[in-house]
Design a protein that fits this description.
Strand content of chain B: 35-45%
Structural class of chain A: mainly alpha
Oligomer: heterodimer
Number of helices of chain B: 8
CATH architecture of the domain at 247-385 in chain B: Distorted Sandwich
Radius of gyration of chain B: 26 Å
CATH class of the domain at 247-385 in chain B: Mainly Beta
Largest interface: A-B, 26 and 28 residues
Structural class of chain B: alpha+beta
CATH superfamily of the domain at 247-385 in chain B: abc- transporter (atp binding component) like domain
CATH topology of the domain at 247-385 in chain B: Coagulation Factor XIII, Chain A, domain 1
Largest sheet of chain B: 8 strands, mixed
Number of domains of chain A: 1
Number of strands of chain A: 0
Order of helices and strands of chain A: HHHHHHHHHHHH
């Protein structure tokens, strides 16, 4: 295990370089280039703000702020996008890089590292803009903002662990990838992102507590919308699950890495 | 220093009867195996010592690529182990991982990072890489506008930017045009003289004989033979023609060299002799001396076609000259069992000083691959001495006249 991470450290320039290239290649040959990285999320924030808070006059129950719903929506969606980008790219990473795996010798653990870092980079750009918006609209929560860091670390760990498990399984059972792309749509709507959890009947809320993403997203929304510290006790369940998934993923990856190269 | 040691190496791929079998195998608590192993390589043992150059040959499907992949680390062995020491660079597939939209320079950086160089090291190596690849101003153009030769050149330059302890080359010597082939080959030779251990897979006899100290013949996933390149190449040739027929045999000649004889035996070589102008057998020839290669052949079965060919090889086993009765437009058609023919090829021994061997073969159409009746390597050994011509070097006597003007 230690050897795996040492190899990753030796190849850090490759990981960083790959993230950089992936970022560059997205908007290569477009005239505005990297500006699209800002325009896309900006458009999203504008759409949610204008449509939900100004036109539809949507209000969050219990919060008296015209921006509250769009902040609620943006924080949920940004977190979800990070999660779904990591997981869905991880589950296909071995198949997507089949050629490289078969022909070149490099530590395979670089692949999940590249996928996760690159999703994180995309997230940080959008989230940076979102933070600027919070400042400008006078909704910056203050010191409690620092609580986002551990929650985001948890979110990434959960996504990376799940992605690694699915990525290895998908090499051997291609149905996993097909199934997950459907499942993640359901999962999105089973997580209180677009709607507040409080509008649901109590029994349903109890069931939703089994969704580890609920607690993570709720913590982020709490910090950004109400300026409240996360309920740390609620995060124990996703934390345990993340640790288990990461261990399972690394174990599966190590046990099957020889077979992965044969199978793809 | 770079070494490769391969012990009891084997590779098998799993094959499952149905898609569900693997799932059942994974979740079965009793751990019952539900797959069959399909072996592509079995029980391989060899060591490559520091600074040694070893060639690997074998027909398609013999397991050469699988072996290289395991040594390079892209595939894991099923049994046994591969141990390498020193920095290993494998030229398995040049230009792999080049991104068409990025410039040559950016791709060099990426390939370098994949080889484990740091960014600073790549920056330092960049001028040398650019210079060696000779892509000029294209270095800052996207790789998609490169010709395939340019891509290969750039890839080769990156892969060989610094001298590795172990270099693994898979058929990659055919990089670009003839000029660049020489250049890349020279670089490999230089590495070799500086102590790089070399493992080379090639169908190119010249390459293997010219650069390798030892060759290994793989056949059907097992090591058939290892030894000096000349002997192994002969065995490989025999294997090529013998694929569907009986095996080949190798025997020591009186001079201690190993002779390979193969063929179906439907026609057999009898007396093989090199004769001078008065018809006497000779072993030592003068440069340029007219000689006749006389070969008598016994036909053992009715054959629609009979062609005889010969090949003169130098000390290293490199072909110097070869032809056959098909190319000389004298094919024997419908020969009957029991007949005896004598073939006489006459030529001037326009060869440089040294030892040469002659291989002779009896076969059906224009090459020995179609039907091989008898193939005999090292059928004759002769020496060429130079006592009457001006001093020269090389395997050929190309009479030169000189005119100096001012």
């Amino acid at each position: 295990m230690a050897g795996m991470f040492r190899a990753l450290w030796t190849y850090r320039d490759f990981v960083l370089g790959s993230v950089k290239r992936e970022f560059q290649s997205k908007y290569r040959n477009s005239m505005l280039g990297a500006a699209w990285n800002l325009i896309n999320p900006l458009a999203m924030i504008v759409v949610y703000t204008v449509i939900f808070s100004q036109i539809m006059q949507t209000r969050l129950p219990g919060v008296d702020n015209s921006f509250a719903y769009s902040i609620y929506l943006c924080s949920g969606i940004l977190a979800w996008n990070l999660f779904s980008e990591v997981v869905s790219r991880s589950q296909s990473m071995f198949l997507d890089n089949a050629n490289m795996i078969k022909k070149l010798s490099f530590p395979r653990i670089c692949l999940p590292a590249i996928v996760t870092s690159s999703a994180l980079l995309n997230f940080l750009i959008v989230f940076g803009l979102f933070t600027v918006f919070l400042f400008m609209s006078g909704n910056f929560p203050g010191l409690v903002f620092a609580a986002l860091l551990p929650v985001l670390v948890l979110l990434v760990a959960f996504a990376a662990g799940l992605g690694l498990v699915l990525g290895v399984l998908n090499v051997f059972f291609r149905d996993v990838g097909q199934f997950f792309s459907i499942f993640i749509t359901f999962w999105f709507w089973l997580t209180p992102i677009v709607y507040p959890a409080s509008i649901l009947p109590e029994q349903v809320q109890e069931v939703l507590a089994f969704n580890p993403m609920s607690a993570i997203v709720a913590s982020l929304q709490g910090v950004l919308v109400r300026g409240t510290w996360p309920q740390w006790a609620d995060l124990v369940y996703p934390l345990v699950l993340s640790v288990l998934l990461c261990l399972a993923g690394l174990h599966l990856f190590r046990a099957r890495s020889a077979e992965i190269a044969d199978e793809i | 220093m770079g070494t490769i040691s391969v012990s009891n190496l084997g590779k098998a791929y799993k094959s499952y009867p149905t898609r569900w079998s693997r799932l059942l195998e994974w979740i079965d608590p009793r751990g019952r195996s539900r797959h069959e192993l399909h072996w592509v390589l079995k029980g391989l043992n060899f060591t490559v010592h520091p600074g040694e150059a070893v060639g690997i040959i074998g027909v398609n499907g013999a397991g050469k690529s699988t072996l290289l992949k395991m040594i390079a680390g892209t595939a894991k062995p099923t049994t046994g182990s591969v141990q390498t020491t020193g920095r290993v660079v494998a030229l398995l597939e040049l230009g792999m991982g080049f991104h068409p939209e990025f410039t040559g320079r950016q791709n060099v950086v990426m390939s370098g990072q994949l080889l484990g160089y740091s960014s600073a090291e790549i920056d330092a190596l960049m001028p040398a890489i650019e210079e060696f690849a000779e892509v000029g101003n294209y270095i800052d153009e996207p790789v998609r506008v490169y010709s395939s030769g340019m891509q290969m050149r750039l890839a080769f330059s990156v892969a060989t930017a610094t001298r590795p302890d172990v270099l693994i080359v898979d058929e990659a010597l055919s990089v670009g045009d003839a000029y660049f082939q020489h250049k890349s080959f020279d670089r490999i030779r230089t590495f070799r003289s500086e102590g790089t251990t070399l493992l080379l897979v090639s169908h190119d006899k010249q390459a293997i004989q010219a650069i390798c100290d030892r060759a290994i013949l793989l056949n059907a996933g097992q090591m058939e033979l290892q030894g000096v390149p000349e002997q192994v190449m002969d065995a490989y040739n025999a294997l090529l023609v013998q694929k569907e027929k009986s095996g080949f045999r190798q025997q020591e000649t009186v001079t201690g060299k190993v002779q390979t004889v193969s063929g179906t035996g439907e026609a057999a070589l009898d007396v093989i002799a090199l004769l001078n102008e008065s018809g006497e057998p000779v072993e030592i020839l003068q440069v340029g001396q007219p000689v006749t290669l006389s070969v008598s052949v016994d036909v053992k079965a009715d054959l629609p076609e009979l062609v005889m060919g010969y090949m003169i090889k130098d000390r290293l086993g490199q072909p110097v000259f070869g032809t056959n009765s098909h190319h000389l437009k004298q094919v024997l058609a419908d020969v009957k069992a029991g007949q005896r023919y004598v073939f006489r090829f006459s030529f001037d021994a326009n060869l440089g000083e040294g030892t040469y061997s002659i291989a002779v073969a009896l076969h059906a159409s224009e090459s020995h691959v179609a039907g091989n009746f008898e193939w005999r390597d090292l059928a004759l050994i002769f020496n060429v001495v130079n006592t009457c011509k001006p001093t020269f070097v090389g395997v050929n006597w190309l009479p030169a006249t000189l005119d100096i003007s001012q």
